[in-house]
Design brief:
alpha/beta, Arc Repressor Mutant, subunit A, D-Maltodextrin-Binding Protein, domain 2, 3 domains, 5-stranded mixed β-sheet, 4-stranded antiparallel β-sheet, 11 helices, 13 strands, 23% strand
Amino acid sequence: MDINKLYYFFAAAESDSFTRAAEHCHIAQTTMSKYIAQLEEETGCTLFLRSKSGLTLTEEGKRFYEGMKEIDRKYRALLSSLAPQKALCHLGLASQEFKGLDFLPAFQKAFPEISLSCHMAPVPELENGLEAGTLDGIIAPDAIVFPKRFATIPLMPVPQCLVCSEAHAQSLKDIPHILSALPFLTKADNPCYVDSCRRKFQAVYHASFGMSETIPTFTEQLLRLSLGHGFSILPYTPGSIGNGLYLFSLPPTFEEWTCLVYRPSHGSPALQRLISFFHEKKC
């Protein structure tokens, strides 16, 4: 059983609604429903009674909730007792412009006995480190696709902006004209992500880009943007940011999720403590 599913179950049981529970946990309602269905299949019993008025726990669901709450308390206490003095949690960073990671300093403050070590590198190098056990986890945007043997937990949604040169912002004026005139520059080597962005632009602005180009590094991406070679979607605040760049805010549908990627069978006590802490704060 994936212990992380329990936190979604707890949230659903305590909010009486899959929709509200999904909002509290910052996941899609369909994802919440899928996790609960998987949990019911694993336990072999119906945990919730579903009706128009909301959710209620079945008798089996109540017993499961009370039992797993007690197990969760013991599990978290055990993790704390196992973490040695100044245990290290090695995290790889798969991007250079992270936002929405306020929980990491909060975790460090709550657990000073666990030191967070962060290492920035290209994605293939990080994958090798995770496979070899030199990394406990990778923090990356959801636009990056990792092998299915790794588990992924969505952490925080990050608002996005459309970024282009100030010259293009002045001459093209608005997002629909920028989409029609410029190619999309992205670091994500993921055709599904590019197609998803194209569909979102079409749905929101009734216009979309034609060409896209993969740029390997964040530095090169910013340089190409400042030279007027295209536009990008980046996690910044609207307005001018210098270096000849200008930003237009994008609606929530363009939010990018920051995710934690790890090996389920090789999670260190320090990483499990981080995952538990995050779920406690999120749910």
